[in-house]
Amino acid sequence: MSFLKKIHALPKSLLDKAVTYALNQWPTLTIYIEHGDAEQSNCWTENLIRPFALGRRNWLFVGNEASAQKAALLHSLVQTCLLNEINPRDYFQYVLNQAHRLRKGEVNPESLLPQFIDRELLKPNNNSGAAQKIQPTSV
Fold this sequence. Notes:
Elements: H1 2-5, H2 14-29, H3 31-34, H4 43-55, H5 65-83, H6 88-97, H7 99-104
């Protein structure tokens, strides 16, 4: 930050505006240094949300707001499965087969979310091995 204070730019010039902005935003710009889990780059996050951005135009035609909410929920569950290295097909097959237990209150709905589900439950019943893992893909 001291190097920014040494810059003597003409008042109201573009350089002066840039230096003033950097000095005013310095605490925000360096916040990642104070938190080891914060990343300098958000490329990873941008790659994860790219399918949402690309599908935005298609979602204009989902019919109504209730349908849009349902589509967003399904898309969010699929992306969460991929992020947690869970095959979405295996996940949905298991969760949909638990619908009767959910209605009876025998299963905590939160335990069926992809980030909390017991992965052993997702293994196929045909003893052919573990569920196939799908890696998140960037578009």
